[in-house]
Amino acid sequence: SAKIIDGKSVAKQIRDEIAGEIVKLKDATGVVPGLAVVLVGSRKDSQTYVRNKKKACEAVGITSYEANLPDDSTEEEVIKQISLFNNDPSVHGILVQLPLPRHMNEENILNAVGIEKDVDGFHPLNIGRLAMQGRESLFVPCTPKGCIELLHRYDVEIKGKRAVVIGRSNIVGMPAALLLQRANATVSIVHSYTKNPEEITRQADIVITAVGVANLVRGSWIKPGAVVIDVGINPVDDAESPKGYRLVGDVCFEEVSKVASAITPVPGGVGPMTIAMLLSNTLSSAKRLHNFQ
Length: 293
Ligand code: NAD
Known about the structure:
Layout: E1 3-4, H1 7-29, E2 34-40, H2 44-60, E3 63-69, H3 75-86, E4 93-96, H4 106-112, H5 124-131, H6 142-153, E5 162-166, H7 173-182, E6 186-190, H8 197-201, E7 206-209, E8 227-230, E9 234-237, E10 245-248, H9 253-256, E11 262-263, H10 270-289
Parallel strand pairs: 1-11, 2-3, 2-4, 5-6, 5-7, 7-8, 8-11
Antiparallel strand pairs: 9-10
The structure holds nicotinamide-adenine-dinucleotide.
């Protein structure tokens, strides 16, 4: 049965590496990396994500700044807050917690983040460079970056392999496919209009799923020996759990773990890597803005 790709322990190792590098940066230059989070509205889930990001920053020595704007803020007010952070030298990374309230245009807001502080990698210029041969984006989106980092740390060769990404969202599926291609895999993208997703997925040596449908990917979808990275986080009813539900991925773990050679669990796979990559992007940004090698 498949080896478990332990995202939780890899993420811990990365956070320890980051904490060590932050000490070095501070000793040599006096600079402390800073991450600013812009939260618009009062969604409970977004508040939880922001709180977790702030805690993770503190644990490695990154100073976090937060701007909370009310639900009925205007786009101009949010953009003004972003410009304050763009111009603040103690801030090296800015992230706008998504989703934004419905009356706002996400593109206008994400465009306002200075590309040199775009630690989420969602600015169109950073995404555009990711898609172009021979160009380097300043930042790669955290979740897909975390998926590739897991493959690297488990010595999974990507070059020349067939990869299938299920899902094509701007924040996960699409950049994951671009990253696999940059690492010289041959990549297919399966999405909600794909015919015979099972047959296409079965050709893959590496599968990354980012869909949001519990148990979509069955054992029969997977080529024996493939490596499976499950980004999905889906609540399913569970009377035995105190909350009444538990979280599962897009992959039917029970079946797929019998066929794959390695697989990420949910939780404890990609999830912890996302925050680790955010911290890593913030540190790189501080180093770049202060010319520290
Ligand atoms: P999204 O809803 O924006 O995109 C889902 C994608 O899946 C779409 O491109 C759609 O075409 C595709 N899709 C939908 N139904 C499909 C089907 N039946 N077959 C094939 N493709 C189908 O979602 P997202 O933001 O990319 O997130 C996807 C999942 O990943 C969610 O469960 C989310 O909670 C999770 N997620 C996890 C992390 C993490 O850190 N682990 C980060 C972001 C998202």
